[in-house]
Amino acid sequence: MNAARNDSAYVLPPGTEDLLRGVCADPFSVLGRHPNGRTDIVRAFCPDARAVKLVVVRPRAAPVERAMRRVDDRGLYVGTVPAGASYRLKIGWADGWEETEDSYSFGLLLGDLDLHLFTEGRHRELDRVMGAQVTEIGGVTGVRFALWAPNAFRVSVIGDFNVWDGRRHPMRLRHAAGIWELFIPRIGPGERYKYEILDQDRRLLPPKADPMALATERPPATASVVVDPHPFPWDDEEWMNGRAARQEDSAPLSIYEVHAASWRRPDGDPAGIMRWDELERTLIPYVVEMGFSHIELMPIMEHPFGGSWGYQTLGLYAPSARYGSPAQFASFVNACHRAGLGVILDWVPAHFPADTHGLARFDGSCLYEHEDRREGFHPDWHTLIYNFGRHEVSGFLIGSALMWLQRYHVDGLRVDAVASMLYRDYSREEGEWISNIHGGRENLEAIQFLRDLNGSVAHYCPSAMVIAEESTAWPGVSRPVADGGLGFAYKWNMGWMHDTLQYMSRDPLWRRYHHSEIMFGLYYAFSERFILPLSHDEVVHGKGSLISRMPGDEWRKHAGIRAYFAFMWAHPGKKLLFMGGELAQVHEWHADGELDWRGLGNPMARGVQGLVRDVNRLYRALPALHREDSVPQGFAWIIGDDSENAVFAWLRLAHGVPPVLVVCNMTPVPRPFYRVGVPVAGYWREMLNTDAQDYEGSGVGNEGGVHTTPDAAHGYAQSCVLTLPPLAVLYLSPEGGHA
């Protein structure tokens, strides 16, 4: 009887042959512990092992080793242990012995609530549940892997720990959620891994990187990397506690947009990239000294092709290894906060590249993208479009957004290409797109996704901000979701950028005929909470640099860019300037180069840099320039009809503080004795003159300020007689007076 029971241990269950052939969809039905009366049968599949032993753990005695019987030359071993006894595997490889717990002795890993929330797209801590998580189960430390691939036939974890052999660690499918899971003991941070997937036709797909990996290899390598689970030791409490006030619409928000790789190359190496610790030592002090409130980083999420500038992202949960480790990125954000700087990340939920190791046909099906190319292919960028209507995809994207805001204390996300998400016919001709269920062009699923995104951020990270790059007249982009809007904190004002750059690029002789270009943005300036963007998009693809767009000789070009920046900083709306603009960089930006720091040898370039520093200082110091930035009460025209002289004048206003008078002369002709009505009698101090000699201007101005005279003008009982410098902007404010 005992012999019969012992022989039964070596009767192989259904599915064994599939396991040995690498096509078993349920490895736990064959491998691991299986009760058999007073003993438990243990099966282990160890291809290429020379021997396998069971190490039976006894409570009050030394462990006992038992040799396992090899029952198939392909590497299947069988042994027995007393019922319920703990055991380990001792595997003999060609180069030695490995002792480890059995991955197939562990029970279900993810809880039912996690699975349920994931399938509904409502799990808001995916970075702590999915992917590779260092964890401890039953006193055993290892890595728990979890991957969404509902249409796969078989999924295995592959990595250095199993010599990238997909036979070694096939995973268990949790059918209710389409999630595969496996715990691999005794591996930890730093391990490289991917997933080996068979599709429903049992065809082997290219090895896939983990969509929710928290770290990756440095490109062009494509493996995912297990991260250290210990939280970063943050000491930015003061910043985080005061962040809400720093980012509300009454705050002076001035953003320096940065492409981290090309801001400055290390030690003159044209191919080198500064890592986060180097940027911490160099970029942060520079941005602080220049007076900006925030750094906005072009996408630093992992991306395979550097030439995409990060906008073709595949690792939405991983800081790019180009710049260092996740901990080093956290240290950079922490250092920004300690220096008084906020951090905004460009984030791309609109589309993704079709690299074979990425999301494209991830489990053999169009899992993250649409099957129909009229919905799933982006003709502009030749990328794939996320299927926002799929709950798991929406949850995957929102989980990424929340991770950057929570795990890394990031202060805001700028959502790229929102317009391409909102319209089903974006960049498509008739017949190349599919209407929504109502027959319209609006992408209803994307609209709901954006509302869910902003609602989730408002709930979990209420002091963070989400910014839309949206180039159309879609209504209510920055209106709360509860009021029918999309719920963004701010919207980039692309129309303002286009119109004003076009105006400034015109010969001053002809500006009188294009007066509306400089004025039009003020007709809708308060319809949204706007950011005025002079971004990287305006200095690439043959457009030239900002200063190269200014007409005239070198002096006029520098005078024009100084006037344009002062005009921008005094205009309603928060500010964004791409790196290099403040240097009056002559050449357009190239991502494989660096900023023209040597150009600061030109005193005129240093003058522009000094002007930007000073307008940032004044923007913070004068509440009228920022406090009522998003409401009509913060702005009042004084002169908007002097097209002949290309002169504009307006007031910036805020309750209880002195107003700021802004006067712009957009021609190279000085205009003496120019009368401007003002609301307060007394002395108006000249706070800024972009033609000052400190900025390498001609020095024409008003000797520090002017007194009003009791001559009515522009609807006010008193006025100032000003000298308007050529191609210049003046800021004046009354001493001690309120409007």
From TrEMBL:
Reactions mediated catalytically: Transfers a segment of a (1->4)-alpha-D-glucan chain to a primary hydroxy group in a similar glucan chain
CDD domains linked to this entry: AmyAc_Glg_BE, E_set_GBE_prok_N
Annotated GO biological process: glycogen biosynthetic process
Primary role: Catalyzes the formation of the alpha-1,6-glucosidic linkages in glycogen by scission of a 1,4-alpha-linked oligosaccharide from growing alpha-1,4-glucan chains and the subsequent attachment of the oligosaccharide to the alpha-1,6 position.
Domain of life: Bacteria
Keyword terms: Carbohydrate metabolism, Glycogen biosynthesis, Glycogen metabolism, Glycosyltransferase, Transferase
Name the record gives this protein: 1,4-alpha-glucan branching enzyme GlgB
Record-level Gene Ontology MF annotations: 1,4-alpha-glucan branching enzyme activity; cation binding; hydrolase activity, hydrolyzing O-glycosyl compounds
EC number assigned by the record: 2.4.1.18
Record-annotated active site: D416, E469
Family to which the UniProt record says this protein belongs: Belongs to the glycosyl hydrolase 13 family. GlgB subfamily.
Pfam families: Alpha-amylase, Alpha-amylase_C, CBM_48, GlgB_N
Pathway: Glycan biosynthesis; glycogen biosynthesis
